[in-house]
Queue: 2 jobs
Job 1
Amino acid sequence: MRWPSRRRMLPTLIGISLVTTIVADVAVVVARDQGGHTAGPSADSLVAAADTTGYTPGAVSPLQKAVVPHVLAASGQTIPAADVEAVRHLKGVKSAEVVDAARALVAGKRVGVMGVEPSTFRAYTPEASAKSDALWRNISGGDVAISFTMGKDGGIPLASWTQIGGSDHKTSVRVGAYATMGIGQVDAVVSHATAQTIGMPSGNALLVSAPHTDVTKLRKSLAKVLPRDAKTAALESRYDGTSTPGGTPAGNGRVMTAPEVNTAIRAAESKIGMPYVWGGESDAEGGYDCSGLVQWAFAKAGIRMPRTADIQAFTGWRLPYSQAQPGDLLTWKNDPTFNGVSHIAIYLGNNKMVVAPHTGTDVQIQTVYMRNFWGAIRVNPQLAARKAGGA
């Protein structure tokens, strides 16, 4: 991930997978302990029990009908209420949710953070997260919810207490849940009230749902009613595998050439022994995470890949493992809070793969395992480049 400088205090332009948004650069530091990785827990086990720390959760409204967000719009300033209402009255718009959006340091990594109203925002999240009353009560009460991959692969213990804040505002916040929100590179969510205590901008972003509207046309309409500095981008669907191209690779788009495959594999293998670093994508960061290794290795072969595993999984044809060939991506759905890919590796052939597993390990060659396996991906370089367009 390409994080902006920590010392820049003015709003900065960042990418959230295929989402481009203006955010404030809030210096946030979270103390963390190192922990192991365990795949496949139940969603219910990923919410901190309030009575273990004497913590009092807040009240939230029951989940209403689920809402799928299609566009994220964001500004460097609070979006005026009149503009929000104008968005809600645009043709085809079903609903619009006001949120706070910022880059912040969490566990030493600059990630996308949202401040939300738990009772209403929950409807915009993946099903397992949306249905968890305990999750949203904890957020309402002051907890931070971090993504499953940040918590498990990044080694941040559930129910640990962390310091979040800038140079002038610091507060102790508990990690109350592992919960994926379905928006790439948004890895932490707090309540609107908590967001204000750590100095995040207020109400500077909108999630817009318009299920039967052309997204390109919608973005043009949004540009006419939002502040001039506002940016919009389509949210990539990550709820199932239906957008993966069907059929066979032959005659349905270009696949990687043998030299490209060999170059990508050699590049990945050159990083064997480098530490796993959550969010890492270069030697300068001290190591790589699973999708950072894929992105770096494929770039050495001249192939532009999106940054996160859940989008890399949609860069080609999904095939059963029995048809996997060297250079294909192997994918797993380890996150019980989200029906999307959360782990990825590069297949070497002969039941072996090169992978960055999780915190406490190094880039290594492993035997392929089938627990939570989702499929092999035969990469289409043109599709990969399109998916990487806003990453």
Job 2
Amino acid sequence: MGTAASGLGRKTRRAATAEDQREGPTVKPVVLSSFQAALDLLDRAPSVERTRPKDLSKDAFSLDRMRALMDALGNPEQEVRFVHIAGSKGKGSVCEMLTACLAASGYTTGLYTSPHLLDVRERIRINADIISEHEFTRGLARVATAALAIRPAHGDATYFELTTALAFQHFRDMAVDIAVVEVGLGGRLDSTNVITPEVCAIAAIQLEHTQLLGDTLAKIAAEKAGIFKPGVPAITIPQQPGVLEVFRELAAAAATPLSVLKEDIDFSYRVEASPGLGPHVRVSLTTPQSAYEHLPVPLRGEHQAFNCGLVLAVLDRLRSRGFDATEMKVANGLKQTRSDGRMEMICTSPRIMIDGAHNPESLQALVRAVGGHVRYDSMVMVFGCASDKDIDGMLDRVALGADKIIFTRAAANPRSMHPKELHKRFVESSGKMADIADSVPEALRLAARAVGRDDLIVVTGSFHLAGEAKRFIRELEKGRAAGR
């Protein structure tokens, strides 16, 4: 069943037919004349990502509309084999490592993640390639037509529902061998939860989106465990107190076989240093059918050890379902893992690193990882975050990790907390001084004036902020190149 990754494009593609639309209201097909027209259509759609929790409508989180949309498209999610990944921290890293390993094992592998850094097309990939503008535009027109057909009964499809449907449709049309899907928000009511995967996994659970998911770890864990399906193996890692109890209870209720790294699966890791890799983490996972021994974790930071362990455990379960993921191929795949937005150095003079850390634990892990992997004299942190995050917890980590702080906000995210409010709360809680910038470009210019050759600028707090920093640096470099 495995088709070599080099054969991408030679596989039989499923053509769009009239049968793709189930019987229902007749609507005029949506025509999108350009990729920009597709972007404009998405921008007009309701967006949970860009809406403050208190302003969300009651039907913002319901799978009824997503199921109806899938039905109108001929249920593409039923023709693709999936892996489903949830969690508060680390799920994106798990998705990237897993996709790289499956692609290196010879499988045409789809990947659906969110949010994106620069281009919405980054959310939908096959192996290392993002969906083309043509495929995105054509596919979205089909999805939008289906959304119009169900609109009288179910209301307007959201931005995330449209992109999720587009991804599932694209994976079906391209006849991928398997697709890795990252949960967008929570799990139980997330738009991606219309799939029945081969395996599901849950990374670290932490307090996040408390206005939407609940104000305790137990409530959040229950939402994440909503991806459990009868008979589908589920894997997780050691969690904070109370979380595993919720997982076990809900797994039993859903008839889901649940395994925990280090408890049910033999897993270990160690931190070491070598001339070739420098400081890094190595992981080992052993089962009756797999022996992944001392594999280097491709992403930096000790916190990535359990994320990599989840990847190996998922691959082990996939091997029992007919996938060939040998130790050597997996090791080669890990080496090819992309690190976009994860301790990514986007500029060398001055040194600017971006990271999408968006909760207190992620920030703490980031500061530790930077300290272990990057030499610097002083760290200037450009920070901004969404208003529904654990603000005080994040500001505590900022105070401990940075020598100088500049608060700003992502212009493209209405949920961003105003930098003046961040500054006020930071000064009140820490007693330290900080600066304010109205935009990411202004913050980066201010940071650049404050650093020397051996200092480091870290932009963090959200993927939106990281993406705007990366876009600004790219545009700056293009302008310099054009001027030469």
